[in-house]
Amino acid sequence: MYDIRLAKAADLPALRLFIEKQWKAKHILATNDVLLDWQHLNKETGDYNFVLGLEKRTQEIHGVLGFIQPSQFDVTMQLKQLCWMAIWKTHDAARGGKLGRHLMAHLEEMMSPAFLYAIGASAMSLPLYQALGYQVGRLGHFFILNPEINVFKLATVHKSRIVPQIQIDDDKKCIAQVTADDILQISPEFFNKQKSASYKSAVYLINRYLSHPIYVYQAYKIQHALSTVGLIVTRICSHDDARAIRVVDFIGPSDALRGLGSQWLNLLREEGAEYIDFYNAGVEESDLLASGFTRRTTNDSTVIPNYFEPFSKINVEIDYMVTVPAGQTYRIVKGDSDLDRPNLLVKSPF
């Protein structure tokens, strides 16, 4: 019933209309060509990284599966190493035809990725992934509150939670902001030590974050004595004149985070932010706790909002799927896939 292929430039009007009508009205990928091209245009082939399901007779789009590869931001990275799934949606007219599965099967056959991830997986899709033999899980949500703030506008906090955890600071460690040039000067050995399936390069970090066409990100190195032992990428979100610092990426062994409690508090103070938060899987919880973070639980009365475009004062759970074999190390952060992507075109005050 369907022709399944990659989207071409000529398909963009129909693709935008499908996203607008079937996924979400005024969705930014349907209205902003700059972001669409930055995230999904394959600059080498001119195709767009969307698998389309076209009804054979009418050639109307009845299903789409968007995907993002690290090579989108560094062409030297292995094309078949990793693939993040993005928008995955079928038209009601395709119901019962298993078009969604066919789109995914085409993606796997066409790209042959070593590892396929779906981050922000829906409750409906999780049983399907499990039936296919893939791992599913939920990102841990960790946070540090600013102890100098008494009235929180963004978060909902009980006074007993404001006092930071007691942790031992490592006086040989510090966090220092870095530029793109600084990142390029970091030894390749640092990047080559990554054990996670989702390897990331210096060029990837620069193009994915510091060269983003809309968002403004900050990059920091974790310095231990004279060595760089970790890299952190953050983004500041705001609402009602209040700020939050979101950790969106981290490269390095998780124990690089240990002993940074006072460093995080200094950053909160400098930015005047209510909290720092960090969604992730694959970073050791014990190292995060030793860095001053607290884990938010599912039924926690403390609210650490995730949505800022528009702002919503609710806790959000983020589920995921990985095709990584059991026992293989992997890491997921909020900057992966398109979780940290603009939803509204609001000019940043930063």
Describe this structure in words.
The protein folds into two domains: 2-113, Aminopeptidase (3-Layer(aba) Sandwich), CATH 3.40.630.30; 140-317 and 326-333, Aminopeptidase (3-Layer(aba) Sandwich). The protein is built from eleven helices and 17 strands. The protein has helices at residues 12-23, 28-31, 33-40, 99-111, 126-131, 159-162, 180-185, 188-192, 202-210, 261-271, 285-289; strands spanning 2-7, 48-55, 61-68, 82-90, 115-119, 135-138, 140-145, 173-178, 217-224, 227-239, 242-251, 273-281, 294-296, 307-308, 311-312, 319-322, 332-333. Strand 10 (227-239) and strand 11 (242-251) form a beta hairpin.
Compact description:
With 350 residues, the protein is of the alpha+beta class.
Going by CATH, what is the homologous superfamily of the largest domain? Gcn5-related N-acetyltransferase (GNAT)
How much of the sequence lies in strands comes to 25-35%
At CATH level 3, the topology of the largest domain is Aminopeptidase
- Averaged pLDDT, please? 92
Q: Helix and strand succession? A: EHHHEEEHEHEEHEHHHEEEHEHEEEEE
Number of strands: 17
**Distance between the first and last residues' Cα:** 50 Å
Query: How can the largest sheet be summarized?
Result: 8 strands, mixed
The tally of helices reads 11
CATH arch. level architecture of the largest domain? 3-Layer(aba) Sandwich
Going by helix content, strand content and strand pairing, the class is alpha+beta
Segments where pLDDT lies below 50 for 5+ residues?
346-350
Oligomer: single chain
Helix content: 10-25%
Please write the CATH class name of the largest domain.
Alpha Beta
> Radius of gyration over alpha carbons?
21 Å
- Number of domain modules: 2
